[in-house]
Each structure stands twice: as C-alpha cells, then as structure tokens.
Amino acid sequence: MAGKNLVYLFLCRAKERKRLIEKINNKYPNIRVVDIGCSGRFNPEYALKLINKGANGVLILGCTPADCIYREGSLISERRLFLAKKILSGFGLNEEKLQVMWHKINEIEPVLKEIDKFMNEVTAIKDKEGVEKV
Amino acid sequence: MINKIEENVKILLKDIFKNGDTIISYRNSGTPEIKTPLFIRNKNDIDFLTIDNFNVNNLSVYLSKFEQGEIGLAKNNGRIIITAKPCDAKSIIQMISDEQIDKERIVLVVYECDGVIDLKKLSRLTGELRQVDANEEYVNFTKLNGETGKINLNSVLLDKCLEGNCGLPYFYNYYFVGNEKSFKERIIKRSKPHKLIIQTLKDKKELKQIVENEISKCIRCNACRNICPACFCSDRCVFDKPKLPVELLEKDVSLTENVLFHLIRFYHVFPNCTGCGECERVCPQGIKLNIFYKYINEIISTEFGFTPGSTDSARQPLLSYRLGEDLV
Amino acid sequence: MEQYRLAKSELKSFLELLKEDYQKIIGPGVDEEDRSIFKEITNINDLKLEKTLPLKPPKEFLFPQKDNLFNFSCKENTIEINVKDTTEKQVLFALRPCDLTAINYSDTFFKNNLLDNYYSQKRENTLIIGIACEYPSNKCFCTSMDISPASSNGADIFLTNGGSFFLTEFISEKGNLIKEKLKSILTESVQEDNSLKEKIDKNTRSLLLEEFNLKKVRENLEKAYTSEDTWKKYSDACIVCGACTFDCPTCTCFDVNDSFLEKDTGIRYRTWDSCSFYNFSLHASGHNPRGRKVDRLRQRIMHKFNYTVKQFNLWSCVGCGRCIAVCPVGINTRSIVKDFEEALNEDK
Amino acid sequence: MKTNNLYIPLPSEIVEIKEQGTNIKSFLVKLPKEINGSEIMPGQFFEISVFGQGEAPISISDVFINNNTLLFCVANVGTVTEKLHSLKAGSIIGIRGPFGNGFPMSSFKGKNLILLGGGIGLAPLRAVASYFFDNVESFGKLELLYGARSSKDLIYKDELKQWRLKANTIVKISIDKPEKDWKGNVGFVTSFLDPNFADRSEILFNNDKEFKETKLIICGPPPMINTTIKTIEKLNFPQQEVFIALENRMKCGMGKCGHCNIGSKYVCIDGPIFTLSELKQLPKEF
Q1: pLDDT computed for residue B159 by the predictor
Q2: Chain C closest-CA separation from residue A107 CA (Å)
Q3: Which structural domain range is residue D25 located in?
Q4: With C199 labelled, which of B59, B188, B289, C91 sits at a CA distance of 20 to 30 A?
C-alpha cells in the first residue's frame, strides 16, 4: 500500500520551514512531506519498509551540525543512515533511493535544487527497474 | 580430547556449585546426534552434562533474555554458570558490552573445541544414525541398519569452524585448554581465518537473485529471531506488538513481507552480531542467512574498525558519531 | 480392491497419464542442497524416492501457509465481497503412511460440523497416491502411534516397492475412477505380491530407534497436567519459535488478518499460527491464560496425545518426527512422551 | 444462517452509537435478512468485521426483532475495536454468526435467575434479562448483581433504572472503590454472595436458601471469574447450576483456528457458556 511512485520527505523543524514546504507541495504533488521533529529521531526502519514496499525514494532533510538546535541531532543519524543504505544494497534494493541532506534552517533554493536532482535520479532508477512491486 | 575435558568440567562444576545457582550446559536428547540445553539446579544433575563435538547450540541465548522470563529462565538471585565454546563466549562478551547481562552474576566456563558438527553435512554423508560419537579426527557411527562407519571430522564441521575465526575469548572465569599440542594447532589455524563467500557479493543483480530465491523459502517461524543472542528484545519484539495502529510488518507471508522481516531484523542486530551462525543452522528451510551478516560485518569492521564480541566494553558504532566522517 | 503391478520403467508414462487429468503433480524431490522437499515434479528424474521424509509437510498444498479468504471493496455504502474458487487439480505423489494419516486427520478436522470450504475444495481436487515407507529417520515413531509403515489407509492409490515394480492398489473410488485410463500400463499382480507389505513393514519397524505404549501415555497424560517439573525439564530450553508447529503435518491453527491493497479494496487472508507464540492466546485485556512457555509446550503435547482423541477419536500426532528434526534446541517430543509413559513421578 | 461459506461476513449498517462508559460504546446495527433473528439465543456472539482492520468476537447484547436490529456493546481495547469506535452511524461493518452455544434458556424455565456481571460483562447478561422480561410468567425471580471498577465504568445506566421498576426483579450495583457522590454499595461484585455483606443477595439468602430453584449466571473478566468460583465453592452452590461465559481469544468463531482451545473443548463452539462442573474438568486456561 506504500505509495506507488511516491517520494517521502522527512524533515525536521517543520514549523520553521513552512515556506519551503509550501513550495515543495505545489511543485511536486507526489512528494509526501512528514515532520519528524529532528532528523536524529528518524528511524531507518521506515525507510527500509517504504523502499522495500516499492516507494520511489526517501529523502531526509536535517540541519547542518552547526545549525542544529539539539546540538547533535543530525550527527546521531549519520552512521545509522549510512549503514541502512548498505543494508538496502545488501538485500539487492537500490541504496540511491535513500538520501540525506543537511541544510541551514532558512535555506530554500539550495534545498529545492537538491530535491530536483534527487527526483531526476529517482525517476531514472524507476524506469530502469521497470514495474514496481508492492 | 574434548571428552577428556568433560570430566574436568564436571569436577570443577561440582565444587563451585552453590545452592540457588543455575548451570546451563548440554545433555543428550532422544536422538543420538542432537544435543539439547540442560538447566541444572541441583548438584546431582551435573552428571547428565555432556561436552563433545555435537554441542552446537549457542547457550548465550538463555542469558540475553534471562530477565524477561519468556525465553530466559525466571528470575533467581543465584549465579548463572554457563559452559561455552569460544564462539559462544564472544556472544556473551558482546552482550555484556551491550549491558544486557551483568558480569558479576555470570560464571563463564569456556572450553577449547575442535569444531562442532553440522548435522546437515553429517546426514548427507552418513544418512540416519542409530549411534554416533566423535573424537579429534574421526566421527564413528552406526547406521539404523547396523552398518558401522567412520568419516573425517573436518568433512562435517560447521562453516564457521572451518573458517576458524573464533578467537581467544576476551574474558572468562575458567578456561579448559585440553592438551597442549592441539591447542597450539588451533591457535595457528585461527591466526589466518579465511573468508568463504564474501567476495562474490558485489554485483547487484546477483544479490537480488539470491534474496529472491533464498528469502522466498522463509515460512516466518521466528526460529532465527528467537535463537539469536543479539536479538535480545524478542520477548517484546516490534513484530509481536498486538496493538500498533499501523503494523510495521503484516502477518502475510509474501516475498515483500519476508524481505521486510529480514531487513528490519538484520538492521536491528548487525551491530552486535558476532557471526555465531545459529540463525542459518536453525532455519527449517535452510536459508543461507550468514551471507547477509558476513557482508555487513565486513563493512562495519572496515568502516568503523569495530568487530562485535571483541571486548566487553566497546561502544558500538551506532551509538556514537565522529565529526567530519561525512558518510551520507 | 484389485492389485496390479506397475513396472518402474513405466513410471514415466504413469505420471504423464496422470498429467492429463491433474494439472500439477507434487512429489518428494531434492533442493539444490540435496535436502528432500515436496516439489512439483515436471520430469521423472525430479523424483527422489530413496530419501528420508521431506521436512516441510504436504499440508502446504491443501492448507497453504497463506490462503486468501475473500477480497472486499468498500463502495459508498455497500461492501462487495468475492471469493476466488480454486479449480486446479493436483496429485500428491508418494506420500508415506504418516502423511496419509495426517491428511486423514486434517480432513476430519476441517469437515467436522462447520465445513471449511477452502480446505475441502482443494481436498476434492487432490488425488493422493501413497507409498510404503522404507527409509525412516532416527526421529520417526509412527509405529508407536499404531500406524504401520506399509498401511494404505487414507490413500486413493497405494504403491508398494517390489524391486523392479510397484504393487499398485486402487483403494478409493477416486482412485478407481482413473484406473481404466492407467490399465494399459499395468500388469496382473501375482499371489506372492501380498507378502510384500509385511516384509516392508517388518524391515522398517526394525530400523526405528525406540517405541512407546500409546495407551499408557494417554492415561498418564490425564493426570500429568500438574506435574510441572517434568514439563519444565523440556520447556526451559524452548525458545518459543513456531518451527515445530509449522512443520507439523497435523497442525491446523491459523490466524486471520486483513490488509488493504488499494485505497478501499483489500483482502482478508489466513496464515499459519503457532500455539507457542505469546500472542496466540493473549486476551485483548492483556490477560494470557498460557502466558508461560511451559503452558504452551504442555498445550502442544496434550493436544496431540490427549485432547484430540476426546474430540475426534483420532490422534493428531502421526509420529513423523519432523518436530524433533526441526527444533532449534533439540527438544524431543518422543522423549517427552516416553517420560510420561513410565509411572507418573511423585510431584503430582 | 446457511450461506455455504461461514467465513464471509454479511454487510450491515450501524444505526445508532451511544456512549456507555469510559471508552465503551453500544452499537445498534441492522440485522441482515439472511440471519433469522428469533434463532439468536442470549450468550451467543457475533464476529464483527471492520474491513481492512479485522474481526472481533462480540457477544450479543440485545435482539430487537420488530425493528430488525441487534445491539452490541464494545470496549475499545484492541485494534479492531479502536477502529470500530472511530466509525460513525451509517457506516458499514460486517457481521458473521450467531456462534457459540448460548445460555440454555429453556432449561431455566420456572427457576430464579441470578445474573452476576463485572464491568462490560453486563452486555451478554442484558440479553438474558430481556429474554426474562419477554417471558416473565415462565420464570421465578431475577436478581442482577452488577459491579464495575468505578461509576464511570457502569454501562446501560438508564436500562438499569428501568429494570429496578420491573416486576419480581432486584437490581444491586456496586463499585470497587468509594467515590464522592456514590451512595450505592462499595466492594467487589463477589461481596453480594458473601452472607455477612449488608446488601447481600436476596434470592440466595432469603427466598431459596437450599439453592434448589436458582441458576447462577456469571460474565466478566477472568480475574473476576476466578474469585467468584472461590466464593461459590464456599457457599457450596450446586456447580451444575452455575453458568459461566468465558472470553478467550477467538479468530474464526467456528472451532477451526484453534485460538480458543481449552483442553478438548473449543470455547467458540462448545462454549462460550460452560457450567462450573464442566469447567472443573477442563484445564484452568481461561
């Protein structure tokens, strides 16, 4: 049931990124934005489940370590997400579908640019892999 | 050599055993080649204990779940004396460093072993057995129809014993070395552990194929999860929570759900998996689970220089970070 | 019940003739690691009759691990439910007497008072061909459950190995139905063929490791419920996985669950369940009548060796030894039962 | 109800939902025409399906033959019941049944009935009570002994008021712990069976001291059933006259899935109503 050709964007401090979320929503209808408070709180199991169930991609937006109000939020998840990507490829799934990006809280344009890059990559993967299995 | 160790272990246990302690070891089950865990609570049961090449089980699984009472034993205030092979000791040491069991209540009796027998290989070579015993070199057996025979011990050992990377335990209370000569040989064998199948797993298409036909055999009986010493919350596992609004994993036995089960179990367990190989041994469908664990263990040791079970206080990689690693 | 001879050289055409009426033939073969399993037999050399019993029982072909009960779609204010019927006909080839008796038990269980359509539909479409067992394992104890290794009850057609031929008996009317078609490759059976079955029975019986007296076991189990120490001796090692019940040919417990496929269409399906799982008898209030693992091990043994005899006058254990072979920690059902065969120990 | 496949639920519309107590709601649902309302006995249960979530066994609380509806009372304790509580009137659920043996009402004729209910255990007892009120002349007296954890957990409050006014009916209610504006009894429901309790049962200790004319019907959570059995044994009330409704985990409701198996019985087809003497022969696994 997890989204056919859907991309999930987990981002932190959604209240302070309202304008960014609006831009994303009207630019990319098939991106689901999920507020998780802090990227350190993201549980990679969700990414494993979504990608295994056939979602197009999972993107995690965290703050740069200097900018992080919880001091080590994004750093905590760094190794976890790296190893989650390795496990994905260990099971024959595509690890490029899981990407992490760190940006300052007020940046809008660089984030959108990186999302564009990610979306192209992800659709390229999807065409190569053919029909998604759910 | 290993049966000579059995007498010494019994003598030792008889004099260190105090009332209220529990000894966890092995005993004969109804079938000649299968051993089953033995829980001793009074002294005269110590004679049922057996130490031989058929002690395949990793008894540390009863320690890791000791307190929760579901798989582990009910609480008791005495000590737990556990007989362990060097590879089991690695699991126990990793559990101590994961703060699953406290060191003071454990009496770790480690004995040297020349490798344990893989019953699948044994039955392929000898068929069904009426009686069997093993020594350093040979396995002597009598078939059901009375024929007797002898095969080389090394031809039926578990892969993990052939690899020989079951190093010296980091800590133990008692250590039975057996005779001098065979101990030295084993140290040499262990010094150059060779890798079996890790190199082949590089190309993605082949991996997806292995996952497809291996994990499609899975019948989700939870044997690999419940036998695993590193999977220590299996009494309150996220897969068994009856009341999640959205279930992480459905009861459906399709390929997607089976892959998800192993993905998530794998993801939870790999930082403290010491490669004891129990999950592959117990799988009723014979799924080669070790491929995945060896693949990821190699990444952790190269990337973070961490091998589980090496010391009893190492902080495992997922709980820490280092600035400037920019991994993602 | 007439008997014929089927020459082993004719086995290939025997299977081809069966293929005309039955789309799928399932028999004992081996996987890539030479482990014996039940699989679809596409050509004759897939068939391996000299191996020990396949670990995964044939029940998966009659009571699959996942069975779709129905699809539903929730329109505005109506629910549309449709059930997919199975019409595929299959042959279960070369089942040994223990599996035959197991299927006989599950037939009785699923058809008893409220009919289970899914099982009985598949069962109608299945032809069962049995074979006398000559390759027991050291875990088997079928003779203790008074099943003879050469007993043909439960089979539509029964084969007994006679060296260069199979003694073929057509037992049920479903078996007799296709007898005409097979007549062309069968030859007349001779008088001394009748001794074949006793010979195999005697020989296989001599190969079994140990036996026990079933009647005494059942009586002692009546009073054994409270002797916790004997149960604990075995259940302490148990890791409450489901391997023994999933690989047991007579375990029929299942769980029913729903899942959504699309926005408002979904399926209700049933999957195998195991009485050793904690959630199996967990009440919604959190109370669990079989909370401890000793309760659950006792339930499995008492159900097989005491309870079902009272319900259906049939044992729900056929002594195939799969639960012994598959147990990760070597718990031996046979030695549990033998413990209760001797007099009950004093801690009643 | 003879559809050939008993696993298929029949669609039925929720007519009305009423709050009953802390996270307990009563659901009035349409009776599908395939089910014959007069066949439904008190003590039987239905499997209620919330499509996409699953099924839950819920005992029948009342049958209104005239306007073709069934009444269920559901506590929000599991995933299915939680989804059920989120539904509004008018939405569609599925029901299957009736399953189970139900109370042997015909053998109760001419006898006094004592209904001992705990918390939501009153739901199936209401079906017994309304059967009693429909055939008042063929029964003796009815006494309802109902207990709950707190006054907020009492269900069918207004029905209880009406029952007090009915002929030869006695209603006694108690809650476990004293509360500010609660004037009724305080204590476990088993205290009604205690001879030296102030408001003790009238039938047991006045009208029918030798317990020859009385049937005792119990429904409640397992801990309550255990304590009640102990007090009954102290009274040495005849055990074959005690009828207990068990609530084991159930999935299929037709004796196939094995979840409700106790000893050689299945709670869903041989029960859920067992006499105390029957229960004594089964292992204590309820």
Answers
A1: 85
A2: 36
A3: 10-99
A4: C91
